[in-house]
Write the structure tokens for this entry.
Amino acid sequence: MSHDGHHAVVIPAPGPEFQPHTVAHHFDTPVQEFQSAKLGFWLFLATEILLFGGLFAAYFYFHEMYPETFRLGGKQLDWQLGALNTAVLLASSWTMAMGVRAAQTSQKKLLLRYCGLTVLGALIFMAVKFVEYSAKDAHGFVVFADLFAPYDTATGQIPWFQDYDGHMAGVPHGHLFFAIYLTMTAIHGLHVLIGAGLILWIMKGAAKGRFHAGYYLPVDLVGLYWHLVDLIWIFLFPLLYLVP
Amino acid sequence: MTVHDHDAHAGSGALQMGHHHVSSAALFAKVLVALLILTAITVGASRIHFGAANMLIAMFLACVKASLVMAFFMHLKWDTAINKIVFFGSFLFLSLLIVFTIADQTTRRMDGKWHVQKSPVQYEWVHPRLLTDKKD
């Protein structure tokens, strides 16, 4: 008997390589625990949509204001690297969905393999991102060393936007496109790194046999987070790399 | 309970998190292939000049891709009504933000009286609409 007079609810392990799951004492049933956590997580994902939503609104606002700046800015990005990263992220979303499926069907090794592949996808994505950012730094579109240097009010010079080769010379406020590009892709990249960390945490639990057909809630939730990262990128890719 | 050819249900055991939909591997593979094809179409469509329609085409294709991810990878097709309402609700409120921002942006008159959109950085810069839109 627990302190509140209830028996602890335990979901049995489906096999010797798995662990049973004890339902948290503030829930009466496993279904209640699952549905509560799912609702809470969907609420969190809704806040994520609103976080990125503000940035998308800023994108549309400035795109409408300076369409030529955005078209020329988009041409400075490597759409092939963007397309490659799109394919990598879509494929990693697939491996994550297959990972959740492996957890639902109590296939421990398969779960570990698909999670490993998803983390690999995250690493490839970030490596490509690094190559991209280096090129932007080399052209002076985003001078990372001066990212937080103070703005010179006398000359109007923005320290992080140097545009060494004058690619953006013909359009007003070339820095606007790169400010939006950097803010959106950096916050998205941060989500990729957090997602990869969460999947590694899932792998740790999976190795111990915590997740199986009876209890796979954390795998499901981390999967949803990873798909959200994919969802955001689906909109970022055409808006930034193929500026319409 | 209807079981489709690609459906199975996890956990027929007594004590589970409840009955949950398990999609088939074939369904997930089809979704991935569709997403990659739609990405190729997105790139292809961006190469053709449709004018203002390019933005609508790109956003329409992105919405189709996002719907596939949400419905199948995120299992929203089989999720509870409350979870669907919560998530789609966020898109509803986001659309309010974007629609009213763009409505404001596109209906402002830059007729020389309202200089509200002058750049704070380069005061000599003039909004392109001032130069091109000479109507009324």
